[in-house]
Automatic annotation (TrEMBL):
Residue ranges of the TM segments: 34-57, 69-95, 164-183
Superkingdom of origin: Bacteria
Protein name: DUF4386 domain-containing protein
Lineage per the UniProt record: Bacteria, Bacillati, Actinomycetota, Actinomycetes, Micromonosporales
Source organism: Actinoplanes sandaracinus
Keywords (A to Z) from UniProt: Membrane, Transmembrane, Transmembrane helix
């Protein structure tokens, strides 16, 4: 996959989720319904692209041990969030109103394994692994030093207020666009070097 698709698509789909979430809550209640389902599906798509992003970051880092471990951690977090959002989507389809949907979700969360994996621990791996990957790339001078600051700002937004998710997504879009450009330049240099070697 072209890196630009993943690096631009992930924050754009996150932006879509954040905006739809705000619209869904204008009546004071979020879900179930079309907005709830559409927003969650948008973020599920973003999570799939985030995994591709992590793989490209690992490649940019040289596929060393640290980047491999961090990619695994971040991807595990993305999988945990996928489970969480998948539960929300299913609950939305099964419930007739917000209260019934909340009851269904709470019933699922009563399972200690599901609660640990999809809510209490697993999702944080996504944030920590992603930030650590970006910091590693900055330390290696593969990306600009300010990129981790922007990524951290994005990651903090949902914890400050979930209505700030769209703002965080825009910030992430700028930081990810820079990484995508660096990967594209690196790939072109590698292709040129390879072609030169063949000619020689």
């Amino acid at each position: 996959m072209n890196p630009r698709i993943a690096f631009l698509g992930a924050p754009l789909l996150t932006l879509a989720y954040g905006v739809i979430r705000i619209i869904d809550g204008l009546d004071g209640v979020r879900g179930p319904g079309l907005a709830w389902t559409t927003g969650h599906l948008a973020f599920l798509g973003a999570l799939a692209l985030f995994v591709v992003v992590f793989l490209w970051m690992r490649r940019l880092a040289g596929r060393n041990v640290l980047s491999t471990v961090l990619t695994a951690v971040a991807s595990a977090g993305a999988l945990a969030l996928t489970v969480q959002f998948g539960i929300d989507v299913v609950a939305g389809f099964m419930a007739d109103d917000h209260l019934a949907m909340s009851v269904l979700t709470q019933q699922v969360r009563q399972n200690p394994v599901v609660s640990l994996v999809a809510y209490d621990l697993g999702p944080y791996l996504f944030y920590l692994g992603q930030l650590a990957l970006v910091i590693q790339l900055a330390v290696m001078r593969r990306i600009t030093a300010w990129t981790p600051v922007l990524v951290l700002a994005d990651l903090l937004m949902p914890f400050i207020d979930k209505d700030l998710i769209p703002l965080g997504a825009v910030i992430l879009l700028f930081s990810y666009a820079g990484i995508a450009r660096r990967i594209s330049r690196t790939s072109r240099v590698a292709e040129t070097t390879s072609a030169t070697t063949v000619l020689v």
